[in-house]
């Protein structure tokens, strides 16, 4: 995926020259003519690198850098100063503000590109090393928010596919809880937030979900609406999860009778494809996000699944896309694409490969669970 660079300078000619140079060499370049404009852009854009001029009217590059350092979400973005003044005092002041380096406006284009390429490669290597270390620790602690395999059932075939945004750990979580030979719970959730924070809290939500299901089933209670109600209250009053919410889709499969129950909390509709009538049906839950309010009403839907019909449980990332740097969501686009793939006779594996094409723009974690009646 192409890296995004934010250029900040009050000289429009200088900005356009840099933008042409960077875009011609594979970068996405955003420009801002002032600190105010840069702040507005950063509300919805998270660049991989920021390059800012020292000298600008009203608020200069030093002011801009101080603003970034005070923002926990922005202070870790690599930062370069751009200058036409070869003054050691200016340069030292910039380096004291934790800027990685500076670029002189008179530097030849090839040298500018080499400096940026080397910097981005160094940042990537550092990130991959840190990610590898954390994944290693998670594996040793047996921390997983997706299962290693699907359960084998007599009447249903289950498959799941998951990919994280830009290979960052994310908030999507999947689980299959097989309480006995007859009943299996299928879980798909998405913790609100991005990257590490959402990934960390996904384990807490998973733990609560597993416990709530086990306790209710132990008492002979298989009602999904009651399980969600109890689960929601526990999460709402957990101080650790204050302000942290999650969507949840939960499906109960009865492998003896073939009966299916579904309930959800702030999730996307459950989809069902009927090959005999060429229909793609939707089942929408009415539950609120987990933890949003102490008392929530969660409905329960019985879903009939005949032979060769297939259910689809999806996370938000499957319907998200980006246009002109702005994230948008449209489930109808996803439904139309899925419908056409099913109508053309594509296999589940082929559909997975198409939907999870690495060359397709992805702006969030993506997860899908398929359940087929055998």
CATH class membership of the largest domain:
Alpha Beta
Number of strands: 17
* First-to-last CA distance: 39 Å
Number of domains: 2
Report Rg.
25 Å
- For the biggest β-sheet, the strand order reads 2-1-3-4-5
The CATH architecture designation of the largest domain is 4-Layer Sandwich
Strand content: 25-35%
Q: CATH topology of the largest domain, which one? A: Phosphatase 2c, domain 1
- Helix count from the secondary structure assignment: 9
Gross morphology: elongated
Please identify which CATH superfamily of the largest domain we are dealing with: PPM-type phosphatase domain
- Characterize the main sheet: 5 strands, parallel
Q: Give the integer mean of the pLDDT values.
A: 85
Order of helices and strands: EHEHEHEHEHEEEHHEEEEEEEEHHE
**Derived structural class:** alpha+beta
What proportion of the residues is helical, as a percent range? 25-40%
Structure description:
It is a single chain. With 374 residues, the chain is an alpha+beta fold. The chain folds into 2 domains: 135 residues, Response regulator (Rossmann fold, 3-Layer(aba) Sandwich); 230 residues, Phosphatase 2c, domain 1 (4-Layer Sandwich). 34% of the residues lie in helices and 26% in strands. The protein contains 9 helices and 17 strands. The strands form 4 sheets. The chain has a 5-stranded parallel beta sheet, with helices on both faces. It has a 5-stranded antiparallel beta sheet with strand order 6-17-14-11-12, covered by helices on one side. A 5-stranded antiparallel beta sheet has the order 7-8-9-10-13, covered by helices on one side. Helix 1 links the parallel strand 1 and strand 2. The radius of gyration is 25 Å and the shape is elongated. It starts with a strand and ends with a strand.
